[in-house]
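Task: sequence in, structure out. Protein: Leucine-rich repeat-containing N-terminal plant-type domain-containing protein.
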Amino acid sequence: MATDNVYVLFFLLAFLCIQLIKPNVCDGALTSGCIPAERSALLEFKRGLKDPTNRLSSWVGEDCCKWEGVACSNHTGHVVKLDLQNPHPFSDFSDEPYNNWTLGGELRPSLLGLKHLKYLDLSMNNFGGISIPEFMGSFHQLQYLNLSRAGLGGVLPHQLGNLSDLQYLDLYNDLDPNFVVRVREFSIGDALWISHLSSLKHLNLKSVNFQNGTHWLEALNMLPSIVEIYLSLCEIPSVPLSLPHVNFTSLSVLDLSYNFISSTIPSWLFNISGLEHLDLSDNLFQGNIPPAFGNLASLKGLNLANNFRLQGGIPTSFKNLCKLQNLILSGINISKDLLELDEIFSGCIKMSLEVLSLARTNISGQLPEWLFQLASLQELYLHRNQLNGTIPESLGQLSQLVVLDLWYNHLEGVMSEAHFGNLTELKYLTLSSNSLALKVKSNWLPPFRLESLWMGSCKLGPEFPAWLQSQINISEIVMSNASIIDAMPNWFWSLISTAVYVSVSGNQISGHVPNLLHLNNLYGLDLSSNYFEGPLPYFPPGLSLLDLSNNSFSGTISLAIIMNMPNLVYLSLSENNLSGEIPFSICQLQVLWILDLSKNMLSGELPNCWNNSSPIEVMDFSRNNISGVIPESICSLVSLQSLHLSNNSLSGELPLSLKDCGKLILLDAGHNDLKGEIQTWIGESLTSLRFLNLRSNMLAGDVPPNLSRLSALQFLDLADNELSGTIPRSFGNFTAMKVIENFSSWRTGQIRYKEQMFITTKGNTRAYDVSLSLINILDLSDNNLFGGVPEELTSLFGLFSLNLSGNHFTGEIIENISKLQQLESLDLSRNNFSGTIPSSLAALTSLAHLNLSYNNLSGEIPLGNQLLTFNDPSIYIGNPGLCGFPLNQSCKDNETAQGRSNADDRDDNEMIWFYMSMAPGFVVGFWAVWGTLILNKNWNLYYFRFIDNILDKVYVFTVLKVSRIRKRCCFQQG
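Result:
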């Protein structure tokens, strides 16, 4: 009986083995290799690929299960996994490894030979924008599909809806814009096919264009197993505010960030009871934060950042979110005193909260005690608010704190060792742009090991902070404007051996800078505005940003130094004592955006080796001793926006090649020896110009009228040349000079650069930087211009300064000059203007500088409003006919003459009225007398008798008088 049992067991085991082996035999599988049909399918698929680095060199031999990226089932021998993901992801510093290892070409349908494929990953490659093949929907056993960042594009095929076993789908296609050209983007039409993915748990459609997508929310709501949904950067214009039925029973993660959703926050969100992470950041949601968030009891992470239309306080219901770990509300308008949030953060939330961001929320007040009772807090972001007062020492109680960011507030006072007592986990400390001071003992040993320290504008000096020696893991140091007055210690250069960014600008640190070739990780170094001296050292080859401006470095700019930094994007050596010529190797910096060598003693000629492969946007060679001509190749730099050449000894004419600088915004070539005429092509080709300075050269000829075609021009300085002719009437058409509101500043690439230009206005010259984009100036002074000032100039309503002095202008000052209401400086001196000063000048209420001296003006100086503030007689000197305040010459004689003139005017008026009234009086009187005499004869007789008697008496009287006069005359003669 026992033997029978043994036989039965034997046969059962044998049968089982046969069943296990049978599939392999039937399919032709070998114990030492993959199935031949699948091997052939893989080789055919490979033939359609481009493989520049031969990544698939292992795809030889019989056993395809051992090939790179291929995995087979141990049970059946079928290929179940194909992972061809690029092994080199994007890097912040170089895209070379990524680009070298990308696969491309075509996706051949031979891949369908892998009928048992469960896992397919082609991510991080570049297939040149081809569409996802429709056959991708035929892998019925596929559970994992990752085509993210594979360089694919087009409309997502609805055949993907056939993958009913699919659990993971990743179609994120946003290639890094810094390094890879995004050929095409994914878009989605009718999204109902998504609802057929009944097994789907993870869906990533980040950067898929949803602008024309329909039914996507309904489709997602029909997925019974979905756990994670990522729809960030999808250009979603709107989301339904309600759903008839919410079926997201398994949903744990929902990301709708970076879209264009403009509405209140949808109410259906608050019915997803299992939701743990919700990201609605960077949208246009509006209204108040709904109290219903308090119903999401499972919520661990909530991000509402950068919805600037959201406002009001944080609902008190948040205190019930006992599992909440991450609360990010930065960039919304809370506008509350931080103390008022005590009720919320004193609830159960205070025990779970690990990340709190209230940055840029317009909160105010002092730092409250509840903040330092968040026992689990690891990251605290409160930057760019209105916080004031001191930082309490209870900060030191946050023993789990890793990130402390209080940057850009109004905090003040002294911080000591007590503030950092238990901060053993602190790695990122940001206190810049406050009025804080750190005073610790010279031998203080901090309990933390920082990786990032930002304490710009905080007082750390006057001694160089010795406690930094213990921060051996530091990667970022910013101690700009920190009141340090000391020599740079040698240990500092060793401390930053692992650093990526270092800034100690704006102090009074002295000493020599050694060669820094050992700083292999450093990409940014800012030593500007200190007292460093000596020759320029050698810097590490990976450096991208180098600012040594405003120091005392001397010597030459060596060829080797420049060639050792091929990755330079920003180079400023401005305001030092550097001499010699500019090395031609500077043209070989192929990624350089900003080049500033101004305010040195550089000589020789400008390099003429530029080419269109360089992305330079700003070049500043001003205030040196550079001679020669402006190089023809300079406008091969197609990205050039700002060119500073002023205060040198450049000669020749403006080269015709400058017309190719179509993106030029600023051209400053003032204070040189340039000759020739101002060419008309400037107005035709440099259409982006906003600032044109050709001051103090030897330019001649007429002022081209077509300069007015530069519609963006807000600054034109042609002063101190040899220009002749009249002011073109077309100058009244400068569009930008008619704008009253502030001008927008322009960004230079992605790098912060403080553009600077020296400008002469209000009688002096000074540097403009931050406010440069706000000025609006027309200066034609010290030339040979003549004629009258065209009335059209009074339409330049936005003018800040108008200077026409030192020419030969004639005629009267324009009465309508009062239209220039923004005018702060007006200089018409040293011309031949005549007539009186228009009283309308008093209406220029912004006027702060006025000069009318040395003209032929006459009459009394008008008073009133703004003119009463000008009490300097030199404003009007050189006009002999002027009188009145503030000149010593009074207007009394003029007043007497004026009085007589007024009296004569009054007498003339009275005589006119007398004669005008005498005529009708004569007529009336004549007929009153003669009419009566004619009608009454008795009166007629009496009247004429009366007249006869009067005449007789007059006659007798006259004869007697004459007789007496004669007697007297005879007596005297005798």
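The first strand starts at residue 49 and ends at 50.
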